[in-house]
Amino acid sequence: MAQSRGADLIDRHDVELAASAAAGGRREFGELVRRHGSAVRALLRRMGAQPALADDIAQDAFIQAFQRCADFRGEGPFSAWIKRIAARLYIKRCVKEARYVEEPSAEEAAPQTDHAARVDLDEALKALSEPERLCVSLCHGAGMAHPEIAAALNLPLGTVKSHVKRGLDKLRARLQPEPAQPLGQSVGRTQNVG
Length: 194
Known about the structure:
Blueprint: H1 2-11, H2 14-22, H3 26-47, H4 51-67, H5 78-96, H6 106-109, H7 121-126, H8 130-141, H9 146-153, H10 157-175
């Protein structure tokens, strides 16, 4: 019987699970945590949280989501809803600790062209300044609109847009593939003819 209950949860849609969780269903909410916990922690790490902090904030976000599960109407994916909760909790933590208030230094703002450092998105995000990483992650990871980010971070809308654009430009530069060399040519060698 226990196995069929577990299979029952796996086959249910997030909206159904959230509705059951709103009525006090802890097992149903546990399934939502199982499904979306790693994505929430990954978003928080991309926003700049260290792994232990990402775990703590993700846990707090799921606790808050359980308490407010009746607010989830299924108008969008549950994953987006829980990511917004987690992102807002992280923003509150950053503002409280005054970690996110400075503009990037000239060194941080300069685009990096080291192609050896082009590994993956997580590594590329680490190369952004903290304001850029946070704004890009909120916009493209948590699905927040620019005005919503500006209000959450208490920043001018233009500053948020600049951070997102500058961050995306840096990510594109770091993540685009290196141009392929034509066959028969090697880098750094010249041929002497004659």
